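Q: I'm building a small set of examples for a reading group on sequence design. Run inverse folding on the following structure and report the sequence directly after it, with nothing in between.
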């Protein structure tokens, strides 16, 4: 392989990248898109198949209503217009994992078009257009390992054949590898909120291909693009795009031309390699599938589906920032997962002071998670636990210092807050006589502060409370100390 000329920074300044992404998302229906076979992942190969998904002659596809509803819901969440009548088309090609010799997809009349999502690019909101969202069936899977005789042959598992997919095609609005990463992250977050897919990249429920070209700044026409396929993480897509942009600028700067081709990314080397030239690409000879009626999503059905549209992450972040007075960053973390945001809001809603729950979640919980490199899902303390602790602080039962200590113990023992609290809760001193004795000692030991307090500096109350609690080794009930001190200091 010839060494690729890589471009200098000065060369990069002359060009701008143009990136478009095609994302395939598997829908979480129980059965396939055109037959009643199960879509379960991980079943023994070729056990979830029937004449329809195997493409036997004469077998007729029947469209899965749930798949349509999920696709429409996702398209709505991506701000698309839903086309009332869309058409299923056959995309004809031969491949071992495609027994019918064609894939049922949508072509010139897709389910939905003209959408967008908003991403953050260098801290500024940027709209990325979504050209279309269409429904199609998945193909099977070629297996190269994990079965007897794998060294000499390839096997086919057709369980995935006919699993419903949506393909989400972006406009070429993405201008850098970082924007591509951000787009994919936001897109995944939105799809997860709609719950139409688990977006599990390891199981192939979300797959992304990238088209990338570069052009001279100020030039209107696009440069020749290459397509990067089969990259299995967002991070690798960002890396692959970075490398590919660099390579293309290098080729152009040294007087060469980019050939339109499909490239594969090797993450170990951080490089892309040409896989096949686009000139060899098939003409798919799309035509409307004669076995399927046009798909009609009328206003009534559309409205019914729209009722299932949840509050989406961006709107929820904005609302939570106002409602709980938290920062944009923390709102981002709390809403990054719908289940978690739901848990947080449920717990905070029942707490005495929701804002305190938010504050504890961000300061005490997230700080510790970050230090231990844990995600919120892995947290020993649940949102209910955070709310429970917030109520204790609110009621003056535990001090902020004690709360920190208990949080540390939760992380040490991997137990939730209520469990640790039950075991560790200090034997509280509520004996009025004993507390009054401590108060007298503290007052006697601090005559200057007493004089200042009686002279009007009432903020010193907190100082006295602190001293009494300290004298009780943290065991005096803060609320009681407060009340008794006020009386005593006023005498
Ligand atoms: Zn089937």
């Amino acid at each position: 392989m010839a060494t690729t000329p890589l471009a200098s920074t000065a060369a990069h300044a002359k060009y701008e990248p143009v990136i478009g992404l095609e994302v395939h998302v598997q829908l979480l229906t129980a059965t396939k898109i055109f037959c009643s076979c199960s879509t379960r992942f991980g079943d023994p190969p070729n056990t979830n198949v029937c004449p329809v998904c195997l493409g036997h002659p004469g077998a007729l596809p029947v469209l899965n209503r749930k798949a349509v509803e999920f696709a429409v819901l996702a398209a709505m969440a991506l701000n698309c217009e839903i086309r009332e009548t869309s058409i299923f088309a056959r995309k004809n090609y031969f491949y071992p994992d495609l027994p019918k010799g064609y894939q049922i997809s949508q072509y010139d009349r897709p389910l939905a078009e003209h959408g967008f999502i908003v991403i953050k690019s260098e801290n500024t909101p940027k709209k990325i257009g979504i050209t279309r969202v269409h429904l199609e069936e998945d193909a099977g899977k070629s297996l190269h390992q994990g079965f007897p005789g794998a060294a000499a042959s390839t096997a086919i598992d057709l369980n995935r054949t006919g699993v419903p997919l949506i393909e989400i095609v972006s406009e070429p609005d993405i201008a850098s590898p970082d924007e591509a990463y951000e787009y994919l992250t936001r897109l995944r977050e939105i799809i997860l909120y709609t719950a139409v897919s688990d977006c599990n990249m390891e199981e192939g429920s979300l797959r992304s291909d990238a088209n990338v070209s570069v052009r001279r700044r100020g030039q209107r026409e696009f440069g020749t693009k290459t397509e990067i396929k089969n990259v299995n993480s967002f991070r690798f897509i960002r890396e692959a795009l970075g490398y590919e942009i660099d390579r293309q600028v290098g080729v152009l700067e040294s007087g060469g031309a980019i050939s339109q081709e499909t490239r594969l990314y090797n993450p170990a080397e951080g490089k892309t390699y040409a896989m096949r030239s686009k000139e060899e690409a098939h003409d798919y000879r799309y035509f409307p599938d004669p076995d399927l009626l046009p798909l009609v999503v009328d206003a009534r059905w559309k409205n019914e589906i729209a009722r299932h549209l949840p509050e989406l992450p961006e709107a929820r972040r904005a609302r939570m920032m106002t409602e709980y007075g938290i920062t944009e960053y923390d709102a981002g973390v709390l809403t990054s997962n719908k289940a978690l945001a739901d848990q947080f809001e449920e717990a905070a809603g029942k707490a005495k002071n929701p804002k305190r729950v938010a504050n504890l979640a961000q300061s005490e919980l997230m700080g510790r998670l970050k230090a231990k490199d844990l995600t919120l899902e892995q947290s020993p303390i649940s949102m209910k636990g955070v709310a429970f602790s917030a109520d204790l602080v609110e009621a003056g039962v535990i001090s902020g210092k004690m709360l920190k200590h208990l949080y540390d113990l939760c992380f040490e023992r991997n137990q939730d807050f209520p469990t640790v609290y039950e075991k560790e809760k200090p034997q509280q001193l509520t004996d009025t006589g004993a507390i009054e004795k401590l108060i007298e000692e503290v007052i006697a030991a601090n005559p200057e502060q007493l004089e200042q307090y009686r002279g009007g500096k009432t903020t010193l109350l907190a100082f006295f409370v602190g001293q009494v609690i300290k004298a009780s080794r943290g065991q005096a009930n803060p609320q009681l100390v407060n009340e008794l001190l006020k009386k005593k200091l006023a005498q």
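The mean pLDDT is 90.
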